[in-house]
Amino acid sequence: MRKDNKNRYYVIGGQYEPYCYGGTPTLLGAKRLAGRNMEHWDNWQGWHRPHVYKAEDVIETEAHGCLTHDDGSIIIMPREDATPMA
Question: Domain of life here (predicted)?
Fold first, then answer.
């Protein structure tokens, strides 16, 4: 992540691919952001709250072949070894 970024936590959800809802400087703010962005998954899986990740557990990368992002756009997604906080 960029060093000038003030966000310490990121909210990332998505059923088939990661979708970043944004970042916040506080854990409480991230939990509130996750609650405002509940996702309804298909195949009768119901409602899911996006996960909260620490800033050091996410990476910026270029999108290729995504359903929700244009090719070449920069997206934020969790690292492969990242564990959600909340």
Answer: Bacteria
What distance in Å separates the CA atoms of residue 10 and residue 86, rounded to the nearest whole number? Answer: 11
6-33: pLDDT as tens digits = 999 999 999 889 999 999 999 999 999 9
Q: What is the pTM of this model?
A: 0.88
Residue 28 sits at the vertex; the CA angle it makes with 60 and 35, to the nearest 5 degrees, is 80
Residue 35 has φ and ψ, to the nearest 5°, of -65, -30
Distances (CA, A) of 76 to 42, 44, 46, 85: 23, 27, 25, 16
Question: Bridge partners of 76?
Answer: 60
Provide the CB-side half-sphere exposure for 80 (13 A, CA): 0
